[in-house]
Amino acid sequence: MQDLDVQSHHLLFKNALLELKNWSNLHPDHHPVFVLINAKDGQVPMTVSPLSFSGSALDSIDLEVRTYLGMDKLITPDQVRGEFESLEKAVLAGNWPELDAVRGKFLFVLDENEEKIRRYLTEKPELKNAVLFVNLKEGNPEAGFRIINDPIANESYIQNLVRKGYIIRTRADSDTKEARTGDYSKFAKAMSSGAQVISTDYYIPSKLFPSSYQVDFENRTFERPNPVLNPVRE
């Protein structure tokens, strides 16, 4: 929210990128970190009126990431596409890099509506020479990373996409609801869906209201084998 969120951590995007880079340099063997970009430009009552994110403005996000994080820190659509005709064909062929090849790297996704994504694609047709992946539905040549936030309603849908080769981000909680009630049902569905990225606001319990709710896997871990791609056989 304009006028307020700038007080949370970093005033400038580049400063956040530099913090990521410094942390990554201190932990060079870390698993890939997924960064979702919300290019928000909606008007909020009683706040400054923001400039809209045009195609060139969205492309400036690329430039900032390249400049302050560095290409050597990135997993990009070009890397995944390789010699395939499109990103989606590469994804369906299983052309994502192996884990050990992308330790110490970041993957950025434009988490926006299709209209705004199409603006970005006017600057980066077919995601060639692009930093950002985009949340486009399967069937589009630029599809590869999907954002499907409700694992309860979409568990089997997510499972099918994971089996096909897409990377999926879903959520364990939202809007403090699960944390306030101690409800882990959404997290349970997120886990069984096989979504490779599960977002939470509570990797540690909230300090803003009484709650013991926190999201992690066994023994306070945050990575695990994928249960859809690597099912446990008894």
Structural overview:
With about 230 residues, the protein is of the alpha/beta class. About 30% of the residues lie in helices and about 10% in strands. Helix 6 links the parallel strand 4 and strand 5.
Count of helical regions = 8
- On the 0 to 100 scale, the average pLDDT is 95
Q: For the CA atoms, what is the radius of gyration?
A: 18 Å
Strand content: 5-15%
Which stretches are poorly predicted, pLDDT < 50 over at least 5 residues? none
What topology does this entry show?
Layout: H1 13-26, E1 33-37, H2 55-68, H3 77-81, H4 87-92, E2 106-110, H5 114-123, E3 132-134, E4 145-147, H6 155-164, E5 167-171, H7 177-181, H8 185-193, E6 197-199
Parallel strand pairs: 1-2, 2-3, 4-5, 5-6
Helix pairs in contact: 2-5, 6-8
Keywords for this structure?
globular; single chain; three-stranded parallel sheet; alpha/beta
Q: What is the structure about, briefly put?
A:
This protein is of the alpha/beta class. Helix content is 31%, strand content 10%.
